[in-house]
Design a protein that fits this description.
Chain lengths: 112, 112
């Protein structure tokens, strides 16, 4: 059973701090990695995707991928109370698969 | 530019009944995936439709079926509803040749 693991949290950080969210995956053949943000009662919103080892930056968000260690992380700089949400990590398996496998999410709480 | 739309927003059904959920993909997208999200869990892949055919299916029973129309919109049908089918049903669309999936607002199904 291919799995995506996330710490459920809550991860609590003060406003202005860097929030670091981590995700590990079991399928070494995984190709593509996604971070979604989900506010309570709402649907997931795609905020970042990364396909190659290394870092990818978009505004206050940085996704980091290490395929050898099978982990992907999301850094949120200058965290704001509006960033408080559940962050879902999703992994696309090998090339022949189209589905995304999701972790259960990490709840982030940014304290004013 | 309209995003992914789903209808209805909420639905209450009785055990044993049948339900149909509808999805219109984002403009320019031709691939539709359906997911089930239970409370506190990540979305679980049901199936994906491309060129009006089911391209891949997750671990869901045959009670779950779908359809894609020539305009790329899609339906999810669930027969013989069980209490355990109560969940948020999410539709996601993707542009041709890309792996990113963009979710609609979801349909909250309650089975009593």
């Amino acid at each position: 059973q291919k799995e995506v693991e996330q710490n459920s949290g809550p991860l609590s950080v003060p406003e202005g701090a860097i929030a670091s969210l981590n995700c590990t995956y079991s399928d070494r053949g995984s190709q593509s990695f996604f971070w979604y943000r989900q506010y309570s009662g709402k649907s997931p919103e795609l905020i970042m995707f990364i396909y190659s080892n290394g870092d990818k930056e978009d505004g206050r968000f940085t996704a980091q991928l290490n395929k050898a260690s099978q982990y992907v992380s999301l850094l949120i700089r200058d965290s704001q109370p509006s960033d408080s949400a559940t962050y879902l990590c999703a992994v696309k398996e090998m090339d022949s698969s189209y589905k995304l496998i999701f972790g259960s999410g990490t709840r982030l709480l940014v304290r004013p | 530019d309209a995003g992914v739309t789903q209808s209805p927003t909420h639905l209450i059904k009785t055990r044993g009944q049948q339900v149909t959920l509808r999805c219109s993909p984002k403009s320019g997208h031709d691939t539709v995936s359906w997911y089930q999200q239970a409370l506190g869990q990540g979305p679980q892949f049901i199936f994906q439709y491309y060129e009006e055919e089911e391209r891949q299916r997750g671990n869901f029973p045959d009670r779950f079926s779908g359809h894609q129309f020539p305009n790329y919109s899609s339906e999810l049908n669930v027969n013989a509803l069980l209490l355990g089918d109560s969940a948020l049903y999410l539709c996601a669309s993707s542009p041709r040749g890309f792996y990113e999936q963009y979710f609609g607002p979801g349909t909250r199904l309650t089975v009593t």
